[in-house]
Specification:
Keywords: Methyltransferase, Transferase. The chain has about 375 residues and is of the alpha/beta class. It has 13 helices and 15 strands. Helix 8 links the parallel strand 9 and strand 10. Helix 1 packs across helix 2 and helix 4 packs across helix 5.
């Protein structure tokens, strides 16, 4: 646990430092307020100085946006490969997060923000961080993320195939891209499962919010085991199962990838890009060295019942970005003693696939999301 120190007037203060993405403690902290200009704040933040805000809360948000505009002025050259564009995009994102993450706010004991026009963030922080442990300093950017996650948790996200809403928790990847959910909802179940769905079992590996587990249960699967390595995801999936009145058919287990059991259908929607995540929420998108994908493939045979199938839901965006080839994926499937029964494809529907200003537009516009139906080579 790190402690952050600063001085106001002639008085020295300290508080616990907290960063969800593991940002290092600022080397130096100065107090800033409504008189601080964006150019000055940007310059100090780039130098590594933490800026503890003591002015109006809304003005702090304006300052954060102004600092962001100064970062965004530099645009990469158009004459780059997709792999180079992705690397530049990741480095630019990391730089942006570092600089903007140096505008700080103090949360008093009990998660109150003693700034003019500050919102009541106590409930949101309690959901994200658990019971308070005294005053702590976090980045304003992180606090805004906590507030936004609280609103998403309250409102939920509409999932048409369920006819209801799923409520994500802070730090849990939300099902904002519906095409992968639709693939699991509409792909024909394995023959062994169709014969007796109520007596069959399915696993949802890396369940997140539990949305795919809920889809499988609604399709009539008698027992669904939802796993994840994240305690936040496990709590989120369990809460959503109760909300949907499916707690008697969805068992939330973990932290783990595979449960100690066998199933007729095993579904996995791993992170699609083999790159290192820089924050907990990025673990739903980035997976260093495709660890979860490889874990799913190598462990599938040992957990499938005779006649069962494994469903791998995966985008080919990594292939378009030069991060993984189709040959590497097929080799990994073959090395795990699996064969492809079928592959069902769909095009993405999210707005970024149509945004020509996105630096990764060429790859996103060509992206295909697929459900790979896999079974063992000896069946």
């Amino acid at each position: 646990m790190s402690t952050i120190h600063w001085t106001e007037g002639h008085t020295h203060h300290s508080a616990r430092w907290h960063s969800e993405n593991g940002s290092a403690l600022p080397r130096r902290v100065v107090v800033v307020d409504d008189r601080t200009k964006a150019d000055e704040a940007y310059r100090r933040a780039r130098q590594g100085t933490g800026l503890l805000w003591q002015g109006d809360f809304h003005n702090a948000r304006h300052l954060l946006r102004a600092m962001g505009r100064r970062i965004d002025r530099k645009r990469p050259s158009a004459n780059t490969s997709q792999k180079e564009s992705f690397d530049l995009h990741r480095r630019a994102g990391a730089h942006r997060a570092r600089v903007l993450g140096r505008l700080l706010v103090l949360l008093d004991d009990g998660y109150t923000v003693a700034l003019r026009r500050a919102p009541d963030v106590r409930h949101a922080c309690l959901e994200a961080y658990g019971p308070p442990k005294g005053p702590m300093v976090i980045s304003l950017r992180e606090l805004l993320g906590v507030i936004g996650a609280h609103q998403w948790r309250l409102r939920g996200i509409d999932v048409p195939v369920l006819g209801t809403r799923i409520h994500p928790h802070y730090g849990v990847f939300a099902p904002v891209r519906g095409e992968y959910v639709d693939l699991v909802a509409h792909t024909p179940l394995p023959p062994v499962t169709r014969c007796s769905p109520a007596g069959s079992a399915a696993f949802d590996l890396g369940t997140g919010t539990g949305v795919l587990a809920a889809v499988l249960a609604r399709r009539g699967i008698g027992r669904v085991v939802a796993t994840d390595i994240s305690p936040r995801a496990l709590a989120c999936a369990k809460e959503n199962a109760h909300r949907l009145a499916l707690a008697d058919r969805i068992e939330v287990s973990g932290p783990c990838l595979f449960p100690e059991d066998h199933a007729d259908l095993i579904v996995c929607n791993p992170p699609w890009l083999p790159s290192r995540p820089t924050s907990p929420i990025e673990q739903g998108v980035y997976d260093a060295d495709s660890a979860m994908l490889r874990g799913f493939l190598t462990g599938l045979s040992a957990h499938l019942r005779p006649g069962g199938e494994g469903w791998l839901v995966l985008s080919d965006l990594a292939e378009h970005l030069g991060l993984r080839t189709r040959g590497q994926l097929l080799t990994a499937i073959q090395a795990a003693h699996l064969r492809v029964v079928d592959k069902i494809d769909t095009k993405p529907r999210h707005p970024r696939s149509r945004d020509a200003t996105d630096p990764l537009h060429a790859a996103r516009s060509a992206e295909i999301t697929s459900l790979w139906r896999l079974t063992t080579t000896d069946r």
